[in-house]
Each structure stands twice: as structure tokens, then as C-alpha cells.
């Protein structure tokens, strides 16, 4: 009987209480479960010496060397239903009659889990993960999309396409492991050093030179949101103290894209149009887009009343497979050096960030002729895109192994051959009648190699002052990023002076932008129209990032001390271009000799947050943008062939300046409201 009771108690211990779990309610961070070894005070009561011995064995705390160890778990989440509305958010033109107006509701659900391993009460290893579900209500195609893939029928190469995943799936947003290096290798360091591996956020300075927006959702275009990053880049980081509480370092590396992970990747025939590669079109090994970065963070002063922090940083990005016109037709090496800092005391806050680019992009020599499908007299035919018959100008059909195709494929690869006659064949060729048929290159068939040097720079700075017992703050902020002509508008060796940020979504610090900057930035800012007849895109390219931009603004933040937390921040910002473009005449569809104004306009916005409970927030973000003289000077400027065609519909005899299509100069507005619940 005594033994049976002992066995029963032993089974209860084994199945029910091998550890003592203490649950603590964390309203903002979520539930926290501390899993620790049982102690003798918690042992199961029983009869007899046999049970006493068993329980003593079970309740002996496990040890890691000479120290007691255990686990600590934290579970949390965020649910965020919200709605968005906006008008004129991409073209600033009331004439678009509702084509530039949107409204939608969506939700974001993040579920987080963290586990820590403690040794002697100190965390020595931890892992963290976040899974996300997001989708626009009533639009299943907004949830997730596949990457673009190029279609191919026999030898004909078509356009790219992707597919939607119309189900509310979860994906991994963040997932990493961090551990103490000294504990892991069994050595004793004077300072703490850690290693982090996985998907985790990392940025330099304020995230302008290098941000953490590795993967973002397209549905946020035109609206401010602080949940824009859908996935962080996979990488690794060494970090630690050089001088405890004074000098700290980070060494970071990330893989942004790997095209060497399978034999299908390395063997993909994507280089057949590169000069000299028609017989060896495979991608080959080593096409890995990687990033390495480092920074030193110096806590110069930290005496409680005053804090001065400085950060020097640098990164290098090697992308061997960029796309200018075709996949893999360029190789870029981008480097950036930067310096940031801030000063904080009881009343005053001052901060800045500045950086410069260096490096270059090498654009490969390329034959733009591809095999494609074409409509010929109502029939689908496979033709050469950049070789035609002379006279007549009909595209030359593709016939594998034919004399004509051999001439086309073996033509000397150089821009000097553009527009030239390259041979004559007897015919017939496909649908072309018997010859002789003269083969002629189109004017843009070949593009010679060239290089683009990077020489951009940026600077931002801000100042804030607190009034009335930290319930009212006034702030001012200004910034500038260099601009330049589009680097591929001239198709020759050149210098690009515009600043290049990587994964950047900066929307301001003390003064926030809700429309122009950051992930919300969709304000069209066209660069100069290409002048070279070799430029494949004859239209201006529009940018919305932190480049070719000068801005300044002011804000007022009010945080009254109430029973329930409430704050409201109003911001006003003015924007200019760094480098001007030409004025545009919609009637003649051409640029004018004089420069357009650099003044882009004024944005005013408001951010309101109210916390009815500690873990719940109601928020509202509204913005207005008033276009400046710049948009009046370029009204009607087309950015693609469809917009150019819209200009053809204008009546030259009864021209009405109030009904010019494309880019306009009308006011834009956006609204975002929702609830954020943390658990």
C-alpha cells in the first residue's frame, strides 16, 4: 500500500508538476510565464521514506555548472483594425474623377513569443518570434502575393506576372536567437558580447541611410503607418560593450537576396542578351545580394540630467543582379558613411543624422532584342523585337537555325550597329514573302556598357523644447537630401548626385510627416526628362524616397496629465526640390526652356492618441497637402505612355487650362483611424 501511494504520487509529479509555473499579468507586454526549478518548499507531500527520497530527487534544482538555471516565457500580441481614406494621393488632380480616390478597412494581427534561458538569474540566451496576418477587408488578393515570374511560350519571352493568395494566412515577420558569447564558449570576458541570428530589425542612425523596411505591403501607399514593415531582413549581428555603459559596437551582415541556393537558380538562362554571353546564358554561382554594416555608439555624457549620444556608422551593399531594363543587366556596389547624435536634458532635445554615398553601378552591355509574340495580320507570330525588314519595317520572324536568325544572333554587339543593315537573305522567313529580305537593327537594339558613380549626401536635424512640466513640447526639424538627373537618362558614364537610402521609410522625428515622407510618401516628384535618344524610357521617372528633397517644419505636442492618457501632435512642413526640372507645356506636350519652381508645397497634419485602457489605443491621423508652384509649372507632365495619350485628347482650339490630365496642382487629403489593442 505504501509503495502504491508512492508510485501514484510519483506519476502526479511527473505529469503535472515537473516545474512550478508562475503567471504574471502584463497588460502592455503580454502574459509572462516564469518557469523555474521546483524547490523543497514546493515538494509533494506523501508517506514513507521511499516517497521522500523520490521527491527529494525531483525537487533538486538543476544546475548549469555551479549556478541554478531555468526558463522565462513571454507571450503577447497586437490586434489593429483600422480604416483609410484619401483623395488626390498620387496625381494631385481633381480631373481624375475618382480614379485617384480610395477607401478601405483592414486589420493587422501580430502574435509574439519570447523565451529566455536564465543562468544564475541572468538571461544568457533568448529567442523571439512574431507571426503576422494582415488583409484588406473584402479584398482577398491584398493578403499576400507571389514574386514576379516571367512567362515563356516556346522561345517567346513575355511579361512578368504574379498571383494572389486569397486566404488569411500567417507569415513570419520576426524570428531570432540571441545568446551571450562568453557563456556559450565557456570563457570569461571583461565586457558583455552577444550574437544575434535570424530575422530582426536593424537600422543605422535614424534609418535614412539604412532602414529596416526589408519587405513592406503595397496597400499602405499614400498613408502613414507605423506597422509598415511586414518582414525584417535575415541576418546576423555581433554586439557588445567596448567600455561598459560608454562605448558599444554592432557588426551586422544580412542576405537580401540569394540566387545561388539551388541548381535551378545558378543554371537559369538570364544572360543570353549580355554582350558575349549568347552561347553561355546561365546565371552562374555567386549572385548573392548581401549587406555588411558596422557602428560605434558612444554615450559621451550620461549623468542623469544630461545625455549626449553619438553614433558613427558605415555599410556596404553588394548587389550583383540589379535590373535597369532587364533582369541581371547591372551590378551595383553601394557604400555609405554616416554620423548621428543627440543631446537630451530635462527641457531640451537636439538631434541630427548625416551621411554620404560612394560606390558605383556597372551597367552591362546588352542586346535588347528578345523573342516575343506579336499580332501579325490577326495571327500570333513569334518575332525578333529589335530586328526588322528593310524596306517595310516588318519584324523578322524567329525561325530557329535559319540563316536570318544566325545573322541576327552573330551580329557585332555595339551601339554603332544600331539602325544598321546587318545582312540579306533569300527568304521566305515565316510570314515574310520570298526575298531578298534585308535585315536591319532598330535604333535602340544595342546598349553599350557604362558606369554610374554614387555621390549623394543627406542631413537632418531637429530641436525640441518642453514647457509646463512636460505637458507641452514645441519642436522644429529640417533636412535635405541631394538630387540629380536619373542615372540612366543619358546611357553613358556619369555621376549620380542624388542620395540613395536602402530600405528607408523615414517620416520625421520630432516633426512627423503623414503624407510626403516615409512609407506614406506617394507625392509624385518627377526627375528631369531624358534627353538621350538611347534612353529606353522617354518619360520622367518619379521618386518618392528621401532624395532630391529639402524640407523644414514645426510641431506642437500636447500631453495633458489626465486619468486616461491622451496626446495630440500637430505638424506643419514645407518641401522643396534640391535640383529643378523644366516647366512643362501640356498643349505642346514638351518641356519649356525655363526651370520649374522648386517649391513643392505645404503639408499639415494631426496625430491624436487616446488610451481608454492601458492596453488599448484609439488613434486618428489626418493630413492635407497644398501643392506649391512646382506642380502648377509641370501640370499635365506624363510619366508613361498612357498619360501621354491622355494629352492627345486635349482640344488645341478650345484649350481649357482647368482640365489638364495627369499631374495637377489640387489639394490632397488623407485620413487614417483605428484601434490598437495589445495583449
Please summarize what this structure is.
This protein is mostly beta strands and 679 residues long.
Provide structural commentary.
This protein is mostly beta strands and 679 residues long. Among the domains are: 60 residues, no CATH class; 81 residues, no CATH class; 196 residues, no CATH class. The chain is built from seven helices and 38 strands. The strands form seven sheets. It has an 18-stranded antiparallel beta barrel. Strands 20, 21, 22, 23 and 24 form a five-stranded antiparallel beta sheet that branches. It is globular and about 90 Å long.
What is this structure's SSE topology?
Layout: H1 2-16, E1 20-24, E2 31-36, H2 48-58, E3 63-64, E4 67-87, E5 101-119, E6 122-136, E7 149-153, E8 156-161, E9 171-180, H3 181-185, E10 193-199, E11 215-216, E12 229-231, E13 234-243, E14 247-258, H4 263-266, E15 288-302, E16 306-322, E17 330-345, E18 348-363, E19 366-367, E20 371-376, E21 379-390, E22 395-397, H5 403-409, E23 421-425, E24 437-441, E25 446-447, E26 450-454, E27 457-467, E28 472-481, E29 494-496, E30 525-526, E31 542-543, E32 549-558, E33 566-576, E34 582-585, E35 590-595, E36 599-613, E37 616-627, H6 629-633, H7 641-648, E38 668-678
Parallel strand pairs: 26-29
Antiparallel strand pairs: 1-2, 2-4, 3-4, 4-5, 4-38, 5-6, 6-9, 7-8, 9-10, 10-13, 11-12, 13-14, 14-15, 15-16, 16-17, 17-18, 18-26, 18-27, 19-25, 20-21, 21-22, 21-24, 23-24, 27-28, 28-32, 30-31, 32-33, 33-36, 34-35, 36-37, 37-38
Amino acid at each position: 500500500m505504501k509503495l502504491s501511494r508512492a508510485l501514484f504520487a510519483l506519476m502526479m509529479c511527473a505529469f503535472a508538476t515537473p516545474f512550478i509555473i508562475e503567471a504574471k499579468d502584463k497588460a502592455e507586454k503580454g502574459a509572462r510565464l516564469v518557469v523555474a526549478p521546483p524547490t523543497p518548499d514546493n515538494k509533494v507531500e506523501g508517506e514513507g521514506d521511499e516517497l521522500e527520497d523520490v521527491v527529494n530527487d525531483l525537487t533538486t534544482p538543476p544546475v548549469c555548472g555551479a549556478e541554478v538555471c531555468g526558463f522565462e516565457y513571454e507571450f503577447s500580441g497586437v490586434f489593429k483594425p483600422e480604416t483609410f481614406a484619401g483623395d488626390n494621393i498620387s496625381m494631385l488632380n481633381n480631373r481624375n474623377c475618382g480614379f485617384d480616390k480610395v477607401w478601405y478597412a483592414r486589420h493587422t494581427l501580430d502574435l509574439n513569443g519570447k523565451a529566455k534561458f536564465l543562468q544564475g538569474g541572468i538571461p544568457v540566451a533568448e529567442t523571439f518570434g512574431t507571426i503576422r496576418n494582415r488583409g484588406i477587408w473584402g479584398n482577398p488578393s491584398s493578403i499576400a502575393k507571389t514574386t514576379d515570374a516571367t512567362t515563356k511560350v516556346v522561345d517567346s519571352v513575355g511579361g512578368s506576372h504574379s498571383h494572389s493568395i486569397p486566404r488569411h494566412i500567417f507569415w513570419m515577420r520576426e524570428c531570432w536567437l540571441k545568446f551571450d558569447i562568453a557563456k556559450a564558449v565557456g570563457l570569461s570576458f571583461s565586457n558583455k558580447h552577444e550574437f544575434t541570428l535570424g530575422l530582426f530589425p536593424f537600422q543605422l542612425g535614424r534609418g535614412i541611410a539604412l532602414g529596416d523596411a526589408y519587405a513592406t505591403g503595397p496597400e499602405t501607399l499614400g498613408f502613414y503607418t507605423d506597422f509598415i514593415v511586414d518582414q525584417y531582413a535575415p541576418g546576423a549581428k555581433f554586439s557588445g560593450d567596448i567600455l561598459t555603459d560608454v562605448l558599444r559596437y554592432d557588426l551586422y551582415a544580412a542576405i537580401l537576396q540569394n540566387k545561388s541556393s539551388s541548381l535551378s537558380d545558378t543554371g537559369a538562362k538570364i544572360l543570353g542578351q549580355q554582350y558575349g554571353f549568347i552561347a553561355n546564358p546561365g546565371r552562374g554561382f555567386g549572385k548573392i545580394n548581401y549587406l555588411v554594416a558596422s557602428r560605434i555608439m558612444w554615450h559621451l555624457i550620461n549623468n542623469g540630467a544630461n545625455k549626449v549620444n553619438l553614433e558613427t556608422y558605415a555599410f556596404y551593399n553588394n548587389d550583383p543582379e540589379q535590373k535597369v531594363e532587364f533582369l541581371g543587366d547591372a551590378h551595383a556596389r553601394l557604400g555609405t558613411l554616416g554620423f548621428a547624435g543627440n543631446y537630451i536634458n530635462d527641457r531640451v532635445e537636439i538631434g541630427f543624422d548625416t551621411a554620404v554615398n560612394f560606390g558605383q553601378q556597372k551597367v552591362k552591355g546588352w542586346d535588347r532584342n528578345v523573342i516575343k509574340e506579336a499580332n501579325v495580320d490577326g495571327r500570333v507570330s513569334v518575332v525578333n523585337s529589335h530586328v526588322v525588314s528593310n524596306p517595310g519595317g516588318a519584324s523578322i520572324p524567329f525561325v530557329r537555325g535559319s540563316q536570318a536568325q544566325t545573322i541576327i544572333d552573330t551580329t557585332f554587339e555595339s551601339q554603332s550597329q544600331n539602325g544598321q543593315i546587318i545582312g540579306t537573305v533569300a527568304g521566305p522567313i515565316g510570314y515574310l514573302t520570298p526575298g531578298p529580305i534585308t535585315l536591319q537593327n532598330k535604333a535602340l537594339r544595342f546598349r553599350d556598357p557604362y558606369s554610374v558613380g554614387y555621390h549623394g549626401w543627406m542631413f537632418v536635424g531637429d530641436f525640441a523644447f518642453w514647457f509646463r512640466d512636460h505637458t507641452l513640447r514645441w519642436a522644429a526639424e529640417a533636412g535635405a537630401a541631394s538630387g540629380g538627373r536619373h542615372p540612366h537618362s543619358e546611357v553613358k558614364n556619369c555621376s549620380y548626385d542624388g542620395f540613395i537610402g536602402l530600405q528607408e521609410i523615414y517620416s520625421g522625428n520630432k516633426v512627423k510627416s503623414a503624407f510626403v515622407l516615409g512609407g506614406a510618401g506617394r507625392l509624385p516628384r518627377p526627375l528631369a526628362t531624358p534627353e538621350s535618344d538611347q534612353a529606353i524610357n522617354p518619360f520622367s521617372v518619379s521618386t518618392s524616397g528621401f532624395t532630391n528633397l529639402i524640407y523644414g517644419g514645426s510641431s506642437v505636442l500636447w500631453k495633458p496629465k489626465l486619468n486616461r492618457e491622451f496626446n495630440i501632435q500637430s505638424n506643419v512642413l514645407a518641401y522643396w526640390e534640391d535640383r529643378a526640372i523644366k516647366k512643362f507645356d501640356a498643349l505642346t506636350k514638351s518641356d519649356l526652356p525655363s526651370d520649374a519652381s522648386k517649391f513643392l508645397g505645404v503639408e499639415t497634419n494631426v496625430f491624436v492618441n487616446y488610451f481608454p485602457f492601458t492596453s488599448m489605443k484609439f488613434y486618428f491621423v489626418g493630413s492635407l497637402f497644398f501643392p506649391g508652384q512646382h506642380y502648377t509649372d509641370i501640370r499635365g507632365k506624363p510619366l508613361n505612355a498612357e498619360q501621354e495619350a491622355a494629352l492627345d485628347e486635349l482640344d488645341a482650339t478650345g484649350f481649357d487650362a482647368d482640365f489638364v490630365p495627369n499631374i495637377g496642382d489640387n489639394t490632397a487629403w488623407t485620413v487614417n483611424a483605428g484601434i490598437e489593442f495589445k495583449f
